[in-house]
Write a structure and sequence with these properties.
Oligomer: single chain
Number of strands: 8
Distance between the termini: 42 Å
CATH superfamily: Zn-dependent exopeptidases
Bound molecules: zinc ion
Number of domains: 1
Length: 291
């Protein structure tokens, strides 16, 4: 936590008003209320008649890397992709908001969100997931897919895990991918794994999700990333405790791209080149899955 707090202080958004009295609904709501414009209206009917379905190219994210003018190819109808960058930069400074209980599916509740992990050098998971998600969005937008992000910046709080699932559901997403990196302290633990809901609680979580998980696993392997040697099996891990997956009514998986606490893997996770490789593999998998 100390490391996270230190890392957090280095990030611009973390010093934003901690407003102890400013409860989570305000911050979470700010995210949610800004999200719907893109989250629930994947194909906003722009008054600019004739313009092809815009894919929300970073409305106002000055710090968005790799988002320069995505090509506006014809969007593929019905193929909305929701990307869910894990955690958020404001989480660490807002424990009250983050620790509140929210529905987690399967009759359970769970904390709204967590701070996420970091490399030993202090590079945070939330920054990683944000950067990779923007890169994936750029790649998919260039292919003509409509892409919705579950959060709009890397400085806010949340949204909560149940809302992250809700965004995918309301967008009627053809595929949802949650992007994370792990923080195992087990010596030698490294590699990626793809978590999927198991046992499934609806039809989307059955065969479609299994195929999405396998497609993503295969793309990561093809890109040269090793499967995790400390969790799951052959790069896959069926889970019943992840709210964002439990509550999804669309095909949704969560990829832990690597272990941030492993020194070798941390260097890949921390480099722009490494993040582009992860993004390319994830975008390739989603495009392959959607066909
Ligand atoms: Zn995470």
């Amino acid at each position: 936590m100390a490391t996270l707090a230190t890392a957090c202080l280095l990030l611009s958004g973390c010093s934003r008003p901690t407003a102890a009295g400013q409860p989570q609904p305000a911050s979470a709501g700010a995210t949610s209320s800004s999200a719907p414009s893109s989250a629930t209206s994947p194909a906003p009917s722009s008054p600019a008649a004739g313009s092809p379905a815009p894919s929300n190219p970073a409305p106002s994210s000055p710090a968005a890397p790799g988002t320069s003018a995505p090509k506006q190819l014809a969007a593929k109808p019905g193929q909305v992709v929701v990307l869910d960058p894990g955690h958020n930069g404001g989480n660490a400074a807002n424990p009250t908001a983050i620790n509140r209980q929210v529905p987690a599916g399967r009759g359970q509740t769970k904390e709204c969100d967590t701070t996420g992990t970091a490399t030993n050098a202090g590079y945070s998971e939330h920054a990683f997931t944000w950067d990779v998600s923007l890169r994936v969005r750029t790649a998919l937008t260039a292919k003509g897919y409509q892409v919705v992000l579950t959060r709009q910046d890397d400085t806010s709080v949340g949204p909560c895990v149940d809302e992250r699932a809700g965004i995918g559901n309301r967008a009627n997403a053809a595929a949802v991918v949650s992007i994370h990196a792990d923080g195992s302290l087990t010596s030698g633990a490294h590699g990626f794994h793809v978590a999927y809901p198991n046992p499934p609680v609806n039809a989307a979580q059955g065969a479609p999700t299994t195929r999405l998980a396998n497609t993503l696993r295969d793309a990561m392997v093809a890109a040269g990333f090793p499967t995790a040697n400390y969790i799951g099996s052959n790069g896959l891990d069926g889970r019943a405790d992840l709210a964002g997956l439990n509550l999804s009514e669309q095909p949704k998986v969560l990829v832990e791209c690597g272990n941030m606490r492993d020194s070798a893997e941390a260097s890949t996770l921390s480099s722009a080149e490494g993040r582009q490789r992860y993004a390319d593999a994830i975008a390739s998998a989603i495009a392959s899955y959607l066909g």
